[in-house]
């Protein structure tokens, strides 16, 4: 049987040093993601989600360090690589999508120039080949008129278009692993749906493993095959997304689901109030 595992994390522990002492930010974290699979990590701010992502990328802050465990990407151990080796892995095998794409793009360069420079860095693309690949990536993200988008500057695009451009850029070098840290938080509902559809297309392609981090259970439910629920650096529940969200076993998971239902009710109430207000005019 062929091993389709892309990312394998076992018994990961991360400590953070501060003036108050050492805090265990992540404890005994284990998971596996295969090709074409999406693993969601959900939990409140400070639960260790982003710290987990940074450890995989080898970009932990100076105050944080891995104390135990292993991180393997397609069989390669990452925890003991040199900085130069880490840079090579990040350049060739891992891509990152952040919460705010405006901070990821250079505002002084067009989208096209940033695509072309990235592609030429990753491979032996001619300018023409890089341009063709850039347009193909934007088309895959269902962006209208890719050629026009490439001529635009980041500030000329909406948040949703910019985030989809960021995902397209992240996938342009065909990474083994895509890490998406709160990719929909800054978006309205319409743009959020466009971005979620982009992740569905990544799944359908079946080549890239995705680690999707969010505090929004709705995002995880929409695209993740499996989910990890974290609280204070620990896994409190994990399993298939359908099983965990339909039959939560841990009280914290139930609280997250209740909070989501309450938020949905609030939106419905506000919408109903707006309709009634219009009808009274």
UniProtKB/TrEMBL annotation:
This is ABC transporter ATP-binding protein. It comes from Cohnella endophytica. InterPro entries: AAA+_ATPase (IPR003593), ABC_Ni/Peptide_Import (IPR050388), ABC_transporter-like_ATP-bd (IPR003439), P-loop_NTPase (IPR027417). Residues 9-257 form the ABC transporter domain. Keywords: ATP-binding, Cell membrane, Membrane, Nucleotide-binding, Transport. GO terms for cellular component: plasma membrane. GO terms for molecular function: ATP binding; ATP hydrolysis activity. It is a peripheral membrane protein. Belongs to the ABC transporter superfamily.
């Amino acid at each position: 049987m062929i091993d389709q595992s892309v990312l394998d994390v076992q018994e990961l522990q991360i400590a953070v040093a501060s003036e108050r002492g050492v805090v265990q930010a992540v404890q005994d974290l284990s998971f596996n993601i295969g090709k074409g699979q999406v693993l969601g990590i959900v939990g409140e701010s400070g639960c260790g989600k982003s710290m987990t992502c940074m450890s995989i990328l080898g970009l932990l802050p100076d105050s944080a360090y891995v104390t135990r465990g292993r991180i393997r990407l397609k069989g390669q151990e990452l925890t003991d690589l040199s900085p130069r080796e880490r840079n090579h892995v990040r350049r060739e095998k891992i891509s990152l999508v952040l919460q705010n794409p405006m901070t990821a793009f250079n505002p002084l360069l067009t989208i096209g120039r940033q695509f072309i420079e990235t592609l030429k860095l990753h491979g032996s693309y001619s300018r023409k080949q890089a341009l063709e690949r850039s347009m193909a990536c934007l088309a895959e993200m269902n962006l209208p008129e890719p050629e026009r988008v490439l001529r635009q500057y980041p500030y000329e695009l909406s948040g949703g278009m910019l985030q989809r451009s960021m995902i397209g850029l992240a996938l342009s070098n065909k990474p083994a692993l895509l890490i998406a840290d709160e990719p929909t938080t800054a978006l309205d509902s319409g743009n959020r749906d466009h971005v979620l559809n982009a992740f569905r297309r990544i799944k359908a392609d079946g080549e890239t493993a995705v680690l999707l981090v969010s505090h929004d259970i709705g995002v995880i439910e929409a695209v993740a095959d499996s989910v990890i629920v974290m609280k204070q650096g620990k896994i409190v529940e994990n399993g298939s997304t359908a099983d965990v969200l339909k039959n939560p076993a841990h009280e914290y998971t139930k609280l997250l689901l209740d909070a989501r239902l309450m938020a949905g009710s609030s939106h419905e109430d506000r919408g109903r109030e707006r309709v009634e207000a219009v009808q009274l005019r």
